[in-house]
Amino acid sequence: MGTYVRRTARLGLAALLLVAAGLLNPGTAAAATWDPGLARYPYLTDVTTTSVQVTWADTYKSTDGAVTWGPAGGSCTASSAAAGRLGTAFTVAGTAEYQHSVTLTGLSPGTAYCYRVTGGKSNSVDLLGADPSPTFRTLPSTGAYSFLTFGDWGDTTTGPNPDQAELHSLMASSGALFAVGTGDIAYPSGTQTQYGDLLNTGTGVSEVFGPDFWRRPGPVLPFFSTPGNHGRTTTFFQTWPQPAVAADTGESYGLASYPASTALGYSASTGPAAWYAFDVAGTRYYVLTADWSDNNTGTADGALCQAQFASHACPDYQAEQDAHWKPGRPEYEWLKADLATHPGLKLAFFHYPLRSDDATEPGDPYLQDASINPDRASSLERLLVSRGVKLAFNGHAHIYQRNVAPPGGLVSYVTGGGGAALAPIARGSGASCSPTNAYGLGWSSTGGSYCGAAGAKPVSASKVFHFLKVTVDGTTVTVTPTNADGETFDSVTYDFGADSTAPTAPGSVQTALGTAANPAAKVTWTPGSDAGSGVAAYDVYRQDPGAGSRVYLATVAPDKTGYTDTTAVFGTAYTYSVDTRDQAGNTATRTDAAVVPEGTTTVLTATEDTTIDASLPDKNLGAGTKLLVDGSPVNRALVKFTVPAGCGTVQSAHLSLTVGTSIDDKAGKGGDVHPAGNGWSGSTATWNNTTGVVGDAVVASFPGTSPGVELGQTYTVDVSSAVTGEGPVSLAVVSTSADAARYLSTEGATTADQTPTLTVVCDSTPASGATSTFAPTADSRVEQANP
């Protein structure tokens, strides 16, 4: 990775060798300036308007550790508070250490303070040594401020993690007041050795409290922790103490006993029970537990996930919903009551993602207010939306993804790129992008992947590792991701203020039809607008013939103007409508269009096809399994169809060819389609006896720039100008490129949808709107997100 080279270039050769061996984190070559007995640099949690929790660890077995503090810029020893007891003992890689936590109270809201940590040897040791005093700011009562959110971090299981180190350096200088996690810290299981310290290094050691990691932002950036499915132990709660914000009635912060489930068959267990809320300048923050052990799912089968993602089951999602998000469960009832008694802006943080295009960690349908969820009426998403929560931040999937809200749903972010091994996102990983995925980035050993407005694959992992900086100013919220190269991207501002102004409707709703083999319909429109809070999304609906009302299928991001309906039945006359929805949730306006023609659509299979080869002028190639299109030597493909009697006037015609699967079959240029005469036969045609058959006009072109035509893909082009009525019709595919494209012939096709076909619409007049034919690719949902 580029970031790794950038950091290690500053180290000497010996240090480089240690880094390569996984025995030294980059950046530790310089001598430490803190006391040698300091094991974990002081870090902050549980900040309020009047208090903060300071935690550190040392190797001194003492009871008199203390924190001194004062106003920033003045004396940092004006006040002091002692730990009062021997800290909690633990070991890191065999080193005996003691954790101390001290609560500083009596502070003023929105005020900057500096502090120092002392301990051991009769309270005389300044554990920070020559280091300057860290500063922090208490939570404000009013005004604008920023915080950070991120998840899935603390990972040196494959060696040094320079991207995580870069992120932590950027966090320390971000100017944010605090940070909120989205779960999963210290891989793989959150042990004390994996959390680590300033003293021990190595693979899988000191992944959090190592010198280059949380030591940097931790002293100045108070952290509110969220549990994940890694590290579900006492260590998590001991490491991140939260006594003040988790003290209200009904809130929980610790391990709890979960009873066995008769319905799902999982066993009684002990696991995280962390649900609490805190307020900052009129905004309510909800930190929730949405995680479960992978080893205690009982008879849960994750059937909803299998329905949405055929290759993935999620029994842990199902068990988690049963334990936390059913009416009567303690977390559900606390959240329901607290939401009802707190007006104003509300944000939520939990681990399992509402919506994710990570194939191995997909969205959790058991949390969604979606038709697939039989418990949608009591779902977490419906509870949050119905009580005014505006944004949700999730982890678990090691990607970046911004999701627009479906109707009645929640805008959500997946921010799982804090330092753990990254995962690919749909586009580029053989899967597809969800239409609600407005912007997504992923990474794997084969390179980058993306969705939506990202527009292109990231060129390095450092472009995908990230945190979110969230700025709150009254009811306006701006979310700005920052990657490990220090670059910001996909910044979005939300206006959640009062807005009763309806948006304008999208215009010119049109649809391109599918074929019998691929009966998808592609809906397109021109953008709507909103003068108030801004366009949030477009909602697409379909009304079936004879139905009394329209039905919802999808939501797409506001910068998209197209959607592919893969559930359409060929030849059925649907009516589609598209709504503009604004950020304030106003009822969207709509524009309807009947988009399937009333005439007849027919898919014709080639009656004859062949290749004519200028280098073999007298050879007939009609029995070949491939149709060759080449400029050197010159090869041309000929295909013939018969438009049946009774068709009348042909309203439109589309030619479909499928590229072969051998490595040489793809090409940078797919070729141009020309009209051709019908005086040839597939069993006798040669270059010499077809002179003059191919016309000069170009009626359509297959893809002609990188990546051109790809292996195994079917491509469809509009050849309506060359097909006007009943009877035989011939077409030729010609190329001037020396890079040959090879399409499957009628002899080479093994399935019906691989055969050369001509889709014609006969004597058809659309009821309204504009209509053409459309053959979706195998990745048709990519077209939903990127029309």
What do you see in this structure?
By secondary structure, the chain is mainly beta. The chain contains 10 helices and 42 strands. The strands form 8 sheets. A 9-stranded mixed sheet has the order 12-13-14-15-16-18-17-19-20, covered by helices on one side. The longest helix is centred in the first third of the chain and has 11 residues, at about 160-170. About 55% of the residues are buried. Residues about 1-30, about 595-600 and about 765-785 have low confidence and may be disordered.
Features:
mainly beta; nine-stranded mixed sheet; disordered C terminus; disordered N terminus
Mean pLDDT: 86
Low-confidence segments, given as residue ranges, are 1-30, 594-598, 764-787
* Strands, count: 42
Net shape: elongated
What's the alpha carbon Rg, rounded to whole Å?
A: 31 Å
Task: Tell me the distance between the termini.
Answer: 32 Å
Q: If helices are DSSP runs of H or I spanning 4 or more residues, what is the number of helices?
A: 10
The main sheet orders its strands as 12-13-14-15-16-18-17-19-20
Helix amount? under 10%
Structural class: mainly beta
- Could you tell me the strand content as a percent range? 25-35%
- Biggest sheet overview: 9 strands, mixed
Short structural summary:
10% of the residues lie in helices and 32% in strands. It is built from ten helices and 42 strands.
SSE topology sketch:
Blueprint: H1 2-8, H2 13-20, E1 38-45, E2 52-58, E3 66-71, E4 79-82, E5 88-92, E6 95-104, E7 112-118, E8 135-137, E9 145-150, H3 162-172, E10 178-181, H4 192-195, E11 223-224, H5 234-239, E12 252-258, E13 269-280, E14 283-287, H6 303-308, H7 315-324, H8 330-340, E15 346-349, H9 380-386, E16 389-394, E17 400-403, E18 411-415, E19 437-444, E20 447-452, E21 466-473, E22 476-483, E23 492-495, E24 507-513, E25 521-526, E26 535-543, E27 551-556, E28 562-565, E29 575-582, E30 589-594, E31 600-605, E32 608-613, E33 626-631, E34 634-643, E35 650-658, E36 672-676, E37 700-701, E38 714-718, E39 727-734, E40 741-744, E41 757-762, E42 771-773, H10 780-785
Parallel strand pairs: 9-10, 10-11, 14-15, 15-16, 16-18, 24-42
Antiparallel strand pairs: 1-2, 2-6, 3-4, 3-7, 5-6, 7-8, 9-21, 12-13, 13-14, 17-18, 17-19, 19-20, 21-22, 22-23, 24-25, 25-28, 26-27, 26-29, 29-30, 31-41, 32-34, 33-34, 33-40, 34-39, 35-38, 35-41, 36-37, 36-39
